[in-house]
Structure formats: structure tokens, C-alpha cells
Amino acid sequence: MIFLSGSTFLGGDILTLPCTPTNIDNIIKVEIYNAKVDDFYVTKNTELLSVENNEIPDVWDFDTIMMAQFNNDTSAGNVNWHLNELSHIVIKVKPQDDRKWITSHVKPVSTYEDLVIVGKYLAATTGVWDVALIPVTSGTIEGTYIQTKVDVEVNRLVLIDADAIHSTFLTDGSLSMQSVMPSQAVDTIHKKFPYIIRNTRANYEDVTITATFLPNDEDCIELNKDIKGMARWNRELKAWIMNGKTKLLKSEDGDMWLGYITTPVSDQPYEDGVTELRRLSFGLTETGLPNIEKDLFDAKLLDQSVTSDWWA
Predict the structure, then answer these.
(1) What b/e sequence results for 178-197 when a residue is b if at least 16 CB atoms lie within 10 Å of its CB, and e otherwise?
(2) 168 and 289 in one domain?
(3) Domain shared by 197 and 293, yes or no
């Protein structure tokens, strides 16, 4: 038998008794009683089922709401745990070709409402990423990873900190990188070649960025009509770039750097005759790694629920 919520239709296959047309809205509870049921399936995709052959899918997708197969239990979800068993829900992400998971969110669970999670999603490089939801019981015991895949495509330069995110396609893509590995060559009287003295493990990059940023779509149209407004927006953008907070830089080719703005912003016209658009140049010094949870947490680019207890 098929129930279609939101329409005046209730029907089934040739073995189902005819029913009075019924309209049901906002179903929040389903009960089955006085019946023998082999399978119970609820989906938002009304074109999926082949009622004539009594075929019910056995794979969950994004349209599936409930699927109970009554295999010695009454579970109708795509997980093997229940609310009263949970202490936390953990979300982890990683590139598909990497083994190291990055914990991006941790949430204590005591009610169904706690299973609704809204938070920052870790900025990702181009490619396929695995995203996992993990049930945690007794505060520390991880259950089965429930995974999905996300295709990430980067086609612009992106700059992020704990307060905001700005991106632009108005860049020549030629970020300039300079590796830094402090050392000193010391010449001596009787040797042809110098001694090399290196008293530090420092090994990082300085990145020079040159790009033109634009307001978001909603603001851009109005600001383009107001040159003074555009100038004000550019001044606020420069203040944000130099606000003293760690930034995550993502290039068009998908590379990433976590660092601090160490070279003040240089502001030039985008091109002759276009004064409202500005070409900004500034430098970022690498201070950490974008796949290390401690570095992301210290930069407040990781949800602050992910304390050291949850770092890999």
C-alpha cells in the first residue's frame, strides 16, 4: 500500500482494498498494529517504487525517510544505534586518498533536537572528500562510521578566518611562494667551502597574494552604483585582512596555507580608468598546517567543540 502525503491519493497494488481518497499533511508519527509486515519503507521519491512487482529498495539515499526490515528489531533508520545509547555525535572529514581524519564537529546528545548540527565546514581542497558521522557511547567509544562523499571544486582564490570568508576569481592565479629555511654560511681561512650553521627546525613558506575582491552578489549591484560605498567596502576589507587573526588561504589550484598576514596591504587601481575596483597585494607567512586539528583549533577555524580530547 502507498500513502502519498500532501496529495489526495491513497492506493496500492491489485491486492489492496480500495480506500477513500485521503489528504495527509505534516506526518510526524507512524504506527503499525494488528498487521503482519515484512518491510516498511518511507521515501520522498514517489517515482522510485515499482508497486506492481512489490519491489522495495534496500539501499538508503537522500530521499529515504524510514526503512524497517524487521530483522529481529524495529529499527527504521540507517544507523545501528538509538538515542538513549548516545553521548556525542562526531563529524569527521578527510580527502578520499588520505587516511587521516580531521574532526570538525563534536556535539553532546541528549534529545532528538541535538541531532540537528549546524556549524562550520572545514575548507577543503579540490577533489573528493569523505565525510563521516560517528556515534559515540560512554563518552569515548566510537561506533560505526556512517560515510558519504562530497565533490569539492575550487575555481577561485579564497581567504578565511574565524569571522568571515572572502573569495575572488579576479586574480591571475600566480601566487608567489618563497620557502624559508634559516641557515648561515660561515667561511673559514683554510677551507674552500663554508660551514653551514642551522640552529632551528624552521621550514615554512611566505606567500604573496595579488587579487581584486568583490562584494557578495546581493551587495555588489548596489555598491556598483555608489562609488563612495565601494570605497568604504574596500577599506573594511583591508581592515579585515589586517585584523591580526590567523587566515586560511586557498588557491585556485586547491593548495592551502594556514598563516598570518605579515606584509601590509598594498592598494592599487584594478586598471586605468577603473578606480572603484582595487588590486590588493599582501603577504602571508605560514604558521601551521591546515590538516592539523590543533593548528585549526588555535586559529578558531575549527568548531570550538573539538577540544584536544577529540584530536587524532
Answers:
(1) eeeeeeeeeeeeeeeeeeee
(2) yes
(3) yes
Cell numbers placing 96: 578520499
Q: In this structure, is residue 218 part of a structural domain?
A: yes
Same domain, residue pair 99 and 188 = no
**Which residue reads 581584486 in cell numbers?**
212
10 Å CB burial of residue 135 (0-12, 13-18, 19+) is buried
Q: Do 113 and 55 share a structural domain?
A: no
Range of the domain at 68: 1-78
* Residue that the C-alpha cell 541535538 belongs to: 114
- Please list, in sequence order, all residues whose beta carbon lies within 8 angstroms of the beta carbon of residue 135, skipping any fewer than 6 positions away: 79, 81, 85, 86, 88, 89, 142, 143, 144
| Structure letter (DSSP) for residue 236 | H
pLDDT by residue for the chain (312 residues), tens digit each?
555 544 444 445 555 555 555 666 777 778 888 888 888 888 877 676 555 566 777 777 778 888 887 877 777 776 666 677 788 889 998 888 888 898 888 888 888 788 787 766 665 677 888 999 888 988 888 888 888 888 887 788 889 998 898 988 876 556 899 999 999 999 999 899 999 999 999 999 999 999 988 886 555 555 555 667 778 888 999 999 999 999 999 888 778 899 999 999 999 887 766 667 788 999 999 999 988 889 999 998 888 888 888 887
Backbone angles phi, psi at 40, to 5 degrees: -135, 120
Flag whether 303 is in a domain: no
On whether both 88 and 205 belong to a single domain, the answer is no
Q: What pTM did the predictor assign? A: 0.70
Same domain, 143 and 260: no
Asked, for residue 238, whether it belongs to a domain, the answer is yes
Whether residue 306 is contained in a domain is answered as: no
